[in-house]
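wait is this the right file?? whatever heres the structure
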């Protein structure tokens, strides 16, 4: 019986490189599948540690999660080139906004995540098995994108509590993943919260993944991701009437940075 398994394992190991060469689809499926498996297994192993060390749902668990997720890049040959981390050093809370290209963003998020920073995520993620549990423990704020009114209420609550909790809140203003090398129009929620809480907006831009990652083309190889944390944009004195202009300004700055980091000529 054991010999059978041994032979089977050896055959797979020998065949794997051939399979991966033969079919990009197999290579893509294996790498993404392994990424999901890493999420699943590491979440299951890390949740008890978070409970033991910090006792429950708290942003302090993000430190543990970050330590684990930061190792994932080595499995995929991904490297991050980070600039501007000093821009996170603002007094007190802030709203951080970044572009969102893929599930791979979780590695980029954890690569630069400042202390005491939680994320806004779609509520469906709460049901993603062990990953749902670990992001709940990490303090992730869940919103229902299908109900603007309830999402607004959650965000209004965030604006009220982020000062007392002294947390930064990381929002993906595009509201969904977008791996086209450009930005989707920005939703305004993050900027309403920043103005309501009178805290700065800190834009973060990740260079385009399209050179090494494209699900439509079964492309997922190793690669370098440039990350730039831009100077904070103050909101003191702004009101809800200024939100559209603030959103626009942030969008333009981040889009220009995205093109620069990705070596794409600006428009
Ligand atoms: C140990 C190993 C572990 C391994 C695994 C660990 C993994 C890593 C660990 C942990 C990290 C986990 C991280 C998860 C990350 C997940 C990310 C996602 O899920 S991204 C999708 C969800 N995020 C969003 O959608 C945000 C952006 N959306 C918004 O902010 C929207 O604004 C929202 C949802 C609040 C409303 O969206 P609308 O679609 O209705 O569109 P709009 O244009 O923004 O708003 C419509 C009108 O309402 C006003 N409005 C919007 N928000 C408002 C507000 N808060 N207050 C007042 N008015 C508001 C606007 O001004 C607009 O009105 P006028 O066009 O100006 O007339
Ligand atoms: C082999 C067992 C594998 C079991 C799988 C475990 C569950 C894996 C779920 C991983 C989800 C972890 C968080 C990913 C964050 C993310 O990137 O979510 C996408 C949202 O931002 C936007 O969603 P969308 O609007 O659909 O683009």
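ok assuming it is, sequence goes like this
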């Amino acid at each position: 019986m054991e010999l059978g398994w041994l032979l089977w394992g050896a055959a797979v190991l020998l065949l794997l490189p051939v399979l991966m060469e033969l079919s990009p689809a197999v290579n893509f499926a294996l790498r993404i599948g392994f990424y999901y498996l890493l999420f699943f297994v590491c979440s299951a192993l890390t949740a008890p540690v978070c409970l033991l060390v910090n006792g429950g749902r708290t942003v302090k668990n993000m430190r543990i999660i970050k330590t684990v997720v930061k190792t994932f890049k080595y499995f995929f040959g991904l490297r991050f080139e980070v600039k501007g981390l000093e821009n996170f050093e603002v007094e007190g809370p802030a709203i951080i906004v970044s572009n969102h290209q893929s599930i791979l963003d979780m590695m980029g998020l954890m690569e630069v995540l400042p202390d005491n920073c939680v994320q806004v995520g779609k509520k469906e993620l709460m049901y993603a098995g062990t990953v749902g549990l670990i992001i709940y423990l990490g303090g992730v704020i869940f919103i229902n994108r299908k109900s603007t009114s309830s999402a607004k209420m959650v965000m209004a609550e965030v604006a009220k509590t982020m000062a007392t909790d002294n947390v930064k809140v990381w929002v993906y203003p595009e509201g969904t993943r977008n791996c086209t090398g450009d930005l989707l129009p920005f939703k305004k929620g993050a900027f309403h919260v920043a103005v309501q809480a009178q805290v700065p907006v800190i834009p973060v831009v990740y260079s385009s993944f399209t050179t090494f990652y494209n699900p439509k083309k079964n492309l997922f190889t190793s690669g370098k991701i440039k990350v730039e944390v831009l100077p904070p944009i103050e909101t003191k004195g702004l009101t809800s009437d200024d939100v559209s202009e603030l959103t626009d300004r942030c969008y333009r700055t981040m889009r220009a940075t995205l093109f620069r980091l990705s070596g794409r000529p600006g428009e």
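The first strand starts at residue 78 and ends at 83. so i think its the right one actually
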